[in-house]
Every structure is written in C-alpha cells, then in structure tokens.
Amino acid sequence: MAGDDDPYISSTVPIAKGCIVLGREWAGVKVYLVQKRLGTTWEKDRYQQGTFDAVKQFQRKRDMRVTGRVNERTWQALGMGRPFCIDRFTVQPQVGANPSPERRVETMIDWARKQIGHRYVWGGAGPIGYDCSGLALQAMHAAGRVLPTVTTYLHQRQDFGTATAIYKSGLRKYPLSERQRGDLVFYGPVGSMTHMAIYVGKGKVIEAVRPEVQKGPMRGHGVPLKPFVVRPFGR
C-alpha cells in the first residue's frame, strides 16, 4: 500500500520557481484570463495566433515592447487584477501524520468535490478553473501523492499530455472491472487519451468537462473507457 516507504508520498508538493511568461506554447488559467480581457476566448484557453496578435496590438498601442508574449509588465498593463504568478498554484497535502490509504482516498475525493462548480479551463490546474487532468493532479496533491514526471507547470504546456503521463507514471493499474473508490478512470479510442476522471463509487465520477467541474455517470461519454484504472493509494 502507499505509505511512508513510498518515495512519492510527501507532506509537501514542490512549487515551480518563477512564473510563466505566456506565449504560444501555453494554455490554462492565465491564458483564459488574458483571452477574456482581449476578447479572444474563441481560442478556448490555448494561446494561439489570435491571442498572440491581440497581445501585440495591445503592446503597440501602449508603446510597449511588441513581443506578443505576456510578461509581468504586460500583465499589469492589461489590468488583470490577479497575481501574475497565479500559475504557481499548487495544492499542498491536507492529511494528518501517517494517514491510512483510505484516509488519503477520502481526502482526494473531498478536495475534488469542493471544486464542483468551478469553470472548465483547458490546461487549468486552479485556482479558478480546471481541466480533467488538472483536477485529478491537484486532488492527488491534496492527499500527498507527488508524481515527479507530472507537475502543474508542465500541465499548462499545450504539448504536454497530463492524462497520458499520469496513466504511464508507474502507479498501479487494475482492470476496470476491479475499480474502487478513488481510482482514476481514463477514456479514449485505441492509441489516444481524451479524458480522465476520479471514480467515487456507484458508477459515478467527479470530472472536469465543459462548462464546469461536476459529478456524473462514469459511462456518460461517447468514447470508450480504457480497460485499466490507475490507483493512486492502496491496493
């Protein structure tokens, strides 16, 4: 079972150093906020050409250096009203000393449940929006699970597949038919990963799907369920 002998169970989760300067490689909450401010929300939380051009136009009008990227100076000039380093948001473990695997599972689910109603943001890992894998990653953090190959910083990159990385992280897998409360379920056709969710029992999951984080049926999507679940805690 997951416990003190597990090197990736921790009482702290590392927080990325520095803050993201937004450009065309990024997605997530900061991108969403910039797009909302500049009217490019059709790019759906991905920093693409429309947002790049809108940022350049804004910088030009303000006699700023025209880069198409959003550094702290541009962020402040946009009047975002939120910290430039909002991308560093990383949930810390919320369990006591030496909790059982069952306590970790319940902490993970309780944290995820509290996010129900938060908006869906592609590449989002909080605090104001999540996508499916960002929600699962931060929920695991709340219960003390750290994955060295999967971080909130990497999650915000457009070219990083967080759900796939979690699936391949080395955590134990079990057949879907043996799923338990707290397991992670994955979706997608052969060769791809399109969605993931936290199984909470009785055929239900907590998941982030547009327009918001919600609780719903595990089989409520028109894509195949993967044949294995990932179990972050316990056997």
Write a structural description.
- The structure is a single chain.
- This protein is an alpha+beta fold.
- The chain folds into two domains: 29-86, no CATH class; 90-231, Alpha-Beta Complex (endopeptidase fold (from Nostoc punctiforme)).
- Helix content is 27%, strand content 15%.
- The chain has seven helices and eight strands, in the order ααααββαααββββββ.
- It has helices at residues 29-38, 49-61, 72-77, 101-114, 132-142, 152-155, 162-167; strands at residues 119-120, 129-130, 172-175, 184-187, 195-201, 204-209, 212-217, 228-231.
- The strands form three sheets. The protein has a four-stranded antiparallel sheet with strand order 4-5-6-7.
- A hairpin with a 2-residue loop joins strand 5 and strand 6 (204-209).
- Helix 4 (101-114) packs across helix 5 (132-142).
- The termini are close together.
- 39% of the residues are buried.
